[in-house]
Write a structure and sequence with these properties.
Immunoglobulin-like; about 240 residues; four-stranded antiparallel beta sheet; 22 strands; globular; mainly beta
Length: about 240
């Protein structure tokens, strides 16, 4: 049974110097609504003594959620400045610009990568120093002119399938689904972000055959709950 619900990434010794997550950003997900030209996020250097030069790279995600997804360098989305120096224990504001010229029918997805670099220390003797630094990134959604979230579902046997038929992404939130009369029986829903035409299928234990299933969704910053009723199993409620 199928229902549709409309919703309101060989000589000498080698020495390693690592800087793990010492450069962070204030927002990992950014939404550009219609009419927005730029947004501001903050870059922080958590190190007490290391100075980093940070390069930014903007990439469009082609066919997001698809196994054959591609990343394409772009110029319509960029950070200003695109390269900067950040001192120890400091924070700097960074503006993210998007040039929106044409009408947008479906949500566009970008990744903005922040790649820190640090001056290598001078090696001593017969050794080589390699500096390994972990970068960070923001996922950026450029919203269509007319947002139309739409989730459909199918429930057959003990299998539930969700399908995103709208023009924006919908995130299925992770949660424990517990039996209404036997709360000790729970099923963990791992969750998934569904891009346009994306699907998410999960199998419920037999104990839930007579249960309505509540699923929590996130659209932009709005949380919404939908219920997949027991009648979809072909059973009386």
């Amino acid at each position: 049974m199928r229902r549709v619900i409309f919703l309101a990434i060989g000589l000498g010794w080698v020495l390693y110097s690592a800087a793990f997550a010492q450069v962070t950003i204030s927002d990992s997900i950014i939404h550009f609504e219609k009419g927005q030209k730029y947004q501001t996020l903050y870059v922080r250097n958590l190190s007490h003594y290391k100075t980093f030069t940070v390069n930014t790279v903007a990439l469009e995600v082609i066919s997001p959620g698809d196994p054959k997804t591609e990343l394409k360098p772009v110029t319509d989305l960029f950070a200003a400045p695109s390269r900067f120096i950040i001192q120890p224990r400091s924070e700097i504001p960074l503006k993210i610009f998007y040039n929106r010229d044409d009408a947008i029918d479906s949500q566009k997805v970008y990744k903005l990568r922040f790649i820190p670099q640090m001056e290598a220390l001078k090696p001593e003797g017969n050794s080589q120093l390699i500096t390994v630094i972990t970068g960070v990134g923001a996922l950026i959604f450029v919203e269509p002119d007319d947002k139309k979230p739409k989730i459909s579902w199918e429930r057959e046997g003990n299998v539930i399938t969700l399908l995103n038929e709208g023009n924006v992404n919908v995130e299925v939130l992770r949660k424990d689904i517990c039996h209404s009369k036997k709360p000790e029986i729970c099923h963990f829903l791992s969750g998934k972000r569904l891009y346009q035409n994306g699907s998410y299928q999960f199998v419920l234990p037999e104990a839930f055959q007579s249960e309505n299933i509540d699923i929590d969704l996130m659209i932009n910053i709005n949380k919404q709950r939908v219920t997949v009723p027991v009648e979809a199993w072909g059973l009386d409620s």
